[in-house]
Amino acid sequence: MTETPLPDNGVDDLDDAAPRITSRRDLVTLSLAALGVVYGDIGTSPLYTIRECFLPGHGAEPTPANVLGVLSLVFWSLALVVVLKYLVFVMRADNRGEGGIMALIALISPAPDGDGRGRRRRWLILLGLFGTALLFADGMITPVITVLGAVEGLEAATPVLRPFVVPISLGILVALFLVQKRGTARVGAMFGPAMVLWFVMIAALGLPWVLRHPEVLAAVAPWHGIGFLLSHRLHGLFVLGAVVLCFTGTEALYADMGHFGPRPIRFAWSALVCPCLLLNYFGQGAVILGGGARAVANPFFALAPEGLLYPVVAIATAAAVIASQALISGAFSLAQQAMQLGYSPRLDVVYTSSLARGQIYVPEINGLLLIACCALTVVFRSSSSLAAAYGLAVTGTMTITSLLLHAVARERWGWSRARAGALVGLFLCIDLPFFAANLVKITHGGWLPLVVGGAVFAVLVTWKQGRELLAEQMKQGMVALDRFLPSLRLERPHRVAGTAVFMTSNLDVVPPVLLHHFKHNKVLHEKVILLYVLTERVPVVPLEERVEVRGLGDEVYSVIARFGFMETPDVPRALKQCRTQGLRVKLGDTSYYLGRETLLTTGTSGMPQWRKSLFAYLSRNARPATAFFGLPPNRVVELGMQVRL
Roughly what angle, to the nearest 10 degrees, separates helices 184-212 and 274-289? Predict the structure, then answer.
């Protein structure tokens, strides 16, 4: 589905990425859809969190004191990380309704390069980019660990089915990624009711065991968790690394905020998600207290009566598929933001909703995630093998979010240094112990998100620096516009009928493609437009602020077309909007001139050779400018040139 055309006149009512809520029915409907997209990851954490905490070999012994200690850590992790940090504070740091690390980067004001503040900003942006890269790595791991964790319930039913766990998981993952092209709204509508069933089921499984062993409710007291960590010391750090699994998905929750808005996300948490999760976690603690090797080996499935085990496995598998949606849709949003902010090559972006611009589908990212998830499934083969990798990606991204939040609180919220430092200091006191607990697992799989994140980070920074170096190279030999226009008046070249649009990245100089055209063809169109497409640091630019037109004389115009970093530029529609400022363009009589650079990596720029090669490869495989800018292919003229980098 493509984006519904906006009205030609009036104000664009889609200032925010998130849909608007005008009634209680809208709130309930969006909350239901949010269950299927936002809370799938957090909601399926009971499948493996408690199991990993008591895993034989490196987990805690299933004693009553340890059970209360682990449950206390889980309870307060959800309260402090999910509720206090993300739902209360981090989700306030939105950029016109859009969330995620890239939105935080866009909120940080640029500073002059020559002072210390500018250097600090550059380091914060680099940290934010690495956090984005870790979140992409998280998007590869989440579908695998959740699907494997659910399908492994078949082993609890009968060991005979163990050889089929990996093939079944692969089939489920392939089906999940194939359905992504239907769009977030449709996927959420399909998954939302299924997640309601899931949350009701996990609450129903846990409640009877809590009633049998009500002493587990004492874990609400924080001293049980503190005492557990103090008594176990280094071993407690290993267990803390498993407790992380209870709040995986919170960063994706923030990244997906633009799909639904903060109100439905908060409402769904308080009305359904939180109470059901707590009942199940406390129920798993109670079933471990009840004893039995089966309970410790897989406490989630031990909650279910034997006669209902297969239906529980089926529902858990469906919920695991849904859990993957949060990171997948979040990865789509991050990819588009990175592209519009200049950190990624051009990609295909398909709008899947006419009501909310935040709901998109990116085929290239979908394909990469599919390949990566299938490879991880074949290599790791179990959810326990991926647990360490999962935690490091989550805690690394969370820590970086806290650091970026300090700058946003100071600059955007107007907080004092002491107030912002106190809040972020509190968050770091939570984030850093979890991060340290997962650092010790690097050799057990924690290396995976670092390798994947490092590769994605290299792509992001290489593309940004490469485009900047390319722009510097292109400036050499350029002619200033204020020198070129008077020469046109003197030479009075032949003007042919129609309009010519020359794309440019600098309105103070003549676009190289215009110089090439004029040099070789010796003519100009009767109307010439120098078009500069500007990506603003906001998600969506209102329609009345879309274009700025300036007449330069002799039917030559400069036009600035502004788009938000959550929008895909549509140049013909922007030109149509120019009539509101006195410039009328007949689109059927307009030609678009683009430059196509051939990059040579033999130049003298300071970029290492491997990064030059990477940048050249990315440039060759980027989405064509014709498609990215929405230009009609039969009206585009491309002129080539070679550039040494």
Answer: 40
